[in-house]
Design brief:
single chain; 291 residues; 35% helix; binds adenosine-5'-diphosphate; alpha/beta; binds (4-amino-2-methylpyrimidin-5-yl)methyl dihydrogen phosphate; UDP-N-acetylmuramoyl-L-alanine:D-glutamate ligase
């Protein structure tokens, strides 16, 4: 084994071959309960037929009831993981989850820039601005909000906030479908290419109609709302399914439509686990039996 400081980057990316699936990178935190974060991302990548790679930003101590601990990985180690993956395996599309701090965001963006990941480069970059767990514990330092708004969003191909993240990032308190478009416009003003505002938290709406916005057109993404409390990891699964479709070369509207179909089926197969909120299930795609 070699220690971090002995490992130097600089390999050329391995040329793609006909037998290798597309690759997708998640830059995210781990969830010991296996429901959210990079655990959900890797499961989704597998179910969607792409090879998943990871840059771990934080280790969370988490179960279905809540998050009781979070240890940040040093920003230079996060950047080194991005570098190691991109310089050898290659990245067809990347996504972020928990980014923990402004220092980690800056290190990640530098590493992504170096490898052409982000809107100025060729590789699609999905920024899911995860700020807190479903159970309410913060997963982001307050200093990271401006780094997200002014550094990460302008480099993103797509930003995918839920309504709590919209409130935190823009001050907009969305309660109706019409408010979702105002929210999308406010996030779009930070400079991403596309914005997807998710409607899961509009609890009184009988459907889940998310909105995709490119600065001109608002594309509604209709879906049913299932009567389940088990939605842990829904946003991670959605952003990962979109990232997988982008890695396979889909356009943004097609990738988001396919991600929406994927997450809707995953919510419909959500299962109870532990004493709290269970996960949405990606088993429906890979298992002969529906759990
Ligand atoms: N009860 C539900 N039934 C069907 N789809 C849902 C439900 N809750 C959330 N979704 C969908 O799951 C995706 C993630 O939504 P949301 O819960 O808003 O994000 P997050 O998990 O980041 O908080 C969206 O497509 C949303 O419409
Ligand atoms: C490591 C990690 N990443 C992301 C989430 C958000 O997922 P959710 O909103 O479903 O709690 C989480 N709880 N933990």
């Amino acid at each position: 084994m070699r220690w971090m400081h002995e490992i130097s980057a600089g390999h050329e990316a391995r040329p793609a071959n006909d037998t290798a699936p597309p690759t997708a990178l998640t830059i995210a935190g781990s969830d010991s309960g296996g429901s959210a974060g990079m655990h959900a991302d890797l499961r989704t990548f597998f179910a969607c037929g792409v090879h998943g790679t990871t840059a771990v930003t934080a280790v969370t101590v988490q179960n279905t009831v809540g998050v009781t601990g979070l240890v940040e990985i040093p920003p230079e180690t996060v950047a080194a993981q991005v570098d190691a993956v991109a310089s050898d395996i290659g990245v067809d599309a990347a996504k972020t989850g928990v980014l923990a701090s402004a220092a980690t965001i800056e290190a990640v963006l530098d590493a992504c820039d170096k490898h052409g990941i982000g809107r100025e480069g060729r590789t699609p970059f999905v920024v899911d601005p995860v700020a807190a767990s479903r159970s309410g514990e913060p997963l982001l330092r307050p200093d990271a909000l401006d780094a997200l708004r002014y550094k990460a969003f302008p480099r993103a191909t797509l930003v995918t906030p839920n309504l709590d993240e919209v409130r935190l990032l823009t001050g907009i308190d969305a309660h109706t479908r019409a408010d979702l478009l105002d929210a999308a416009k406010a996030i779009f003003d930070f400079g991403p290419q596309w914005v997807l505002v998710k409607s899961g938290h509009l609890a009184n709406d009988p459907e889940c109609v998310d909105v995709l916005f490119d600065g001109n057109e608002a594309i509604p993404l209709p879906g049913p709302r299932y009567a389940t409390v088990h939605t842990h990891g829904a946003g991670d699964v959605f952003a990962s399914a979109i990232t997988a479709a982008l890695a396979k070369g889909a356009s943004m509207p097609d990738a988001v439509r396919s991600g929406k179909r994927f997450v809707t089926r995953s919510v419909s197969h959500a299962y109870p686990l532990g004493a709290g909120v269970g996960p949405v299930s990606t088993f429906w795609r890979v298992s002969p039996r529906s759990f």
